[in-house]
Amino acid sequence: MAVNFAKRKMVTVLSIDGGGVKGLIPGTLLACLESKLQELDGPNARIADYFDVIAGTSTGGLLTTMLTAPNKENRPMYAGEDLINFYFDHSPKIFPQKSNLRGSVASLTGPKYDGKYLKTMVNQFLGDMTLKQTLTNVVIPAFDIKLLQPVIFSTSDAKNDDLKNARLADVCIGTSAAPCFFPAHYFETKDSSGKSRSFNLIDGGVAANNPTLLAMTQIWKDKEEFAEIGPVDSRRMLVLSLGTGSDKEEETYDAAVASKWGMVNWLYDGGRTPLLHFFADASCDMVDFHVSTFFHCLDSKENYLRIQDDTLTGNACRLDLATKENMQTLVEIGTKLLKKPLSRVNLDNGKLESVKGNHTNEEALATFAKRLSEERRFRQTEI
After folding, report:
1. Among 203, 222, 269, 309, which one carries the catalytic annotation?
2. In three state form, how does the secondary structure of 64-75 look?
3. Which residues form the active site (predicted)?
């Protein structure tokens, strides 16, 4: 049974950052969260049953779709425990590992990867399923390079406008079309009168690599749907935001080096794409700053849980290194992250700092799961 919108005390939100194969990190956290929910509510509990809105960018958009797309029994297509195997099964074919030289040369003359496997795979899984069929509201950003503006795909908009009711497969391909890595994605939608709308999309990470604020904005936009709990502010929102890791502590670049870079170096440096790296990290941090401040100002810090690891180093930082060894490393990073102390961003220096109380991220997820379970039971009681 998916989230029922008839009555509620809180509006619940899940947000998942973009990050390529690093999606294994939030995938590990999501598997943990779902196991905590199952301990409370039984083995059939699924993440989509507990969230009013699930938002995801790029690889986070793929995870969002996997958690909310219905199977033949009208239950989520994937359980939390299936997410890790999904990456191990498909990532090496989405990001086929070539030599560094060949990959770097290809990325100067065209996309590093042709994207054919990704398109085939998501079309095979999702077929003609559309946004309005998801089991709970989703919010997935992309960027339209023809209009030079973000495009926000959402279930609620899709239900109200056929031209916004895109195929989930097209949304997944569009939000994942990272510049330099995959081709831009074109598709059209049509309404019953024959009117059409075209989309020319690249990765949603260029607009919102951390889609938490987008999810919250969608709730304010759809405020009539949540009117029974009164004005929706941070005191009535329960928000979980999951990052895909960053390398802040490694301090990879400095001005002395970057001042000598030309166009090629900004696009390719030792297996990384610095320009995309900077945009993605800046987007994630700015959103975290805004959301943290928002909850802090209304004295509701406990309603916002952001789990991120800013200690990644070396190959673990790469978006497309889909070797078995690196993917296993990313799973281990996610597993270790669960045991690390709960942290919050310091709004002065941008660093993650441990929260007083010696709670781990796993304990924080367990507490969050309990609050989700209590909210769901409240709704079922009211029904």
Report:
1. 203
2. HHHHHCECCCCC
3. 58 (nucleophile), 203 (proton acceptor)
